[in-house]
Amino acid sequence: MIQLTPNDLPVGHPLPWSLLDGEGNLVLGSGNIIPDARDLALVFRHGTVCRDEGGDDAADVLRPNPGPLGLQVGTLLHVKLDGAATRAAASRLIGFIEHGLFVTWPQLGGRDLPLQAGDSVLLRGFSGHAIHSFTSTITAVCRSPFRYLVLSAPEREHAMPVRKAARVPTRLAAYLAEPGDDDGIDRSVPRLSLLSDLSTGGALVQTTSPAPAPGSRVRLRFNLRTASLDSEVVIDGWVRAAPSGAAGDDAEFPAFGVAFDVLAERELTLLQCYIYEQLLATTRMPVQPAAVAAV
Hints:
The protein is mainly beta. It has helices at about 35-45, 55-60, 265-280, 290-295; strands at about 1-5, 20, 25-30, 50, 75-80, 90-95, 100-105, 105-110, 110, 120-125, 130-140, 150, 155-160, 170-175, 190-200, 200-205, 215-225, 230-240, 255-260.
């Protein structure tokens, strides 16, 4: 068996192998998710954690196979007509066969994207390791028992690897305050700030007033829009000095970093969804000239 450390396990993502104790007994099966750092600490609390040297063949047989490009059923997809300059609509992968995909009808702003059989669409999805861009042709439009599309096998595939602690540039307004006791009441009057960089571990913050001293406790309240739904997020953290060159070293609006406390499952999930949606929206497929693509 191979002994593991906490750094070996992908928090928030499916485990690639089963976790075993020092005697080889199962602790947690492959494919399960360790939600956050506190759960990770609990797994290691009472002894060593290992994995089998030969992988997890038995579990792989039982676990559902991923679909094309490693995309799992339920994966959020961004969809738009191939070549269109409009915003992408949101869809979900609901199934697959050897030569095709089944996806929910793409919606943008609560409205169905106008599509028909024969249309070529551009799709983007996150496999857990990379953002995958590809094109497919709509082979069938189905309306029963609900509206969904049947797509051809992916073509013109392109993958952009995503590092585990992905950060995205943002322009999110947030209210910054000094957190109070466990009653949830802030000690100071919240003031408006701007998040210009965001990850599940922290954010780069700009304010109109002097930056808090490094080591200070702060609370951020802001809204995230994921899957067209707005959700308020409240996160506590510690002030850190901003890296050199952050936000242009703006003297009028000072910038500083905030390192988040261990996130609750809800906040972690919302942040991950938001970050992945931003990555999906900004990933670009390399342009292939028609003459080259036809060769």
